[in-house]
């Protein structure tokens, strides 16, 4: 163990802290975390942990969600600039306007949204449970879904539901192209193509499976195949290799790197623990309304 890893371990125990890391984090962050998972898993962990402090190695909306679910805990984000461009592609004003036009609609927000948008929503969902959340809404109900138009289109296709979509997308996942995947398929003809539903619809159409990051981990472990072309942020490949050392993984694009996820470094993680920074807060009136949408999501799964 390096000195910095040792220091993190010591201070974490002293402060009764837990380190949660998203599947897209750097390998050294994943390796030192108490728990690595997707947004849904991490929300559940944040809601149930007995720790006093949660250090969230991910992006801002994830730390906000942890604060909403655990208002009495200290939630730390090691780099306050670790945001999510997709989450910033929808505003609370846009949702309020859509609600005024479609007053009978149910509002479903992807977890990649600011707390203010969640507070105007009936349900949250993640890529792991979006299909189940939408399917749980009574047939015939109009649905407003934001911000990811590609995840929204995928859910429409799978469920046949009529949804009003906003215009958000993940810039990182747009580096994955049909051409790139077909080139890799020429080289690795036996490889199974797994992609995230934040990819564009053409990419999803040629994939063998469309899965959340945790869904990918389970799929790969259960699969008899030995080679996979992986269409999501390349941080996931560290976990896939660790859990399946005998299998081969090829990123669908080497450029699929989320610059925001990569802002979290091991040095910043140590600093966050030493300085109790940056503390993420959500005003209680917003948190109370947002909590209902998140808890409804957790109840569906
Ligand atoms: S990978 Fe995309 S959706 Fe995820 S945090 Fe980065 S920009 Fe946001």
Automatic annotation (TrEMBL):
* Subcellular compartments: Cytoplasm
Task: Tell me the residue numbers annotated for binding [4Fe-4S] cluster.
Answer: 84, 170, 258
Q: By its UniProt entry, which SUPFAM superfamilies does this protein fall under?
A: NadA-like
- In its UniProt entry, the species of origin is given as Candidatus Desantisbacteria bacterium CG2_30_40_21
Swiss-Prot/TrEMBL GO biological process terms: 'de novo' NAD+ biosynthetic process from L-aspartate
Gene Ontology terms, MF aspect: 4 iron, 4 sulfur cluster binding; metal ion binding; quinolinate synthetase A activity
Which E.C. number(s) belong to this protein? Answer: 2.5.1.72
The coding gene here is nadA
Q: What is its main location?
A: cytoplasm
The protein here is known as Quinolinate synthase
């Amino acid at each position: 163990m390096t000195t910095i890893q040792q220091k993190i371990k010591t201070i974490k125990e002293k402060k009764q802290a837990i380190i949660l890391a998203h599947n897209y984090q750097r390998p050294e962050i994943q390796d030192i975390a108490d728990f690595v998972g997707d947004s849904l898993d991490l929300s559940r962990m944040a809601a149930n942990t007995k720790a006093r402090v949660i250090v969230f190695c991910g992006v801002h909306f994830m730390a906000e969600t942890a604060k909403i679910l655990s208002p009495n805990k200290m939630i730390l984000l090691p780099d306050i600039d670790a945001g999510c461009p997709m989450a910033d592609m929808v505003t609370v004003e846009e949702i309020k306007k859509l609600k005024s036009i479609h007053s009978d609609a149910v509002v479903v927000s992807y977890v990649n949204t600011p707390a203010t948008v969640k507070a105007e929503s009936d349900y949250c969902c993640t890529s792991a449970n979006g299909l189940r959340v939408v399917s749980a809404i009574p047939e015939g109900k109009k649905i407003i879904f934001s911000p990811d138009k590609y995840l929204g289109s995928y859910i429409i296709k799978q469920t046949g539901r009529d949804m009003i979509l906003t215009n958000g997308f993940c810039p990182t996942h747009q580096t994955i192209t049909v051409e790139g995947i077909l080139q890799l398929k020429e080289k690795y003809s036996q490889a199974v193509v797994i992609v995230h539903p934040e990819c564009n619809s053409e990419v999803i159409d040629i994939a063998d499976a469309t899965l959340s990051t945790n869904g990918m981990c389970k799929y790969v472990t259960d699969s008899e195949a030995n080679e996979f072309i992986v269409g999501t942020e390349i941080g996931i490949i560290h976990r896939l290799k660790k859990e399946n050392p005998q299998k081969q993984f090829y990123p669908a694009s080497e450029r699929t790197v989320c610059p925001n996820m990569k802002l979290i470094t091991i040095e910043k993680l140590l600093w966050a623990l030493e300085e109790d920074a940056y503390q993420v807060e959500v005003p209680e009136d917003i948190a109370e309304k947002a909590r209902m949408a998140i808890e409804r999501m957790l109840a569906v799964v």
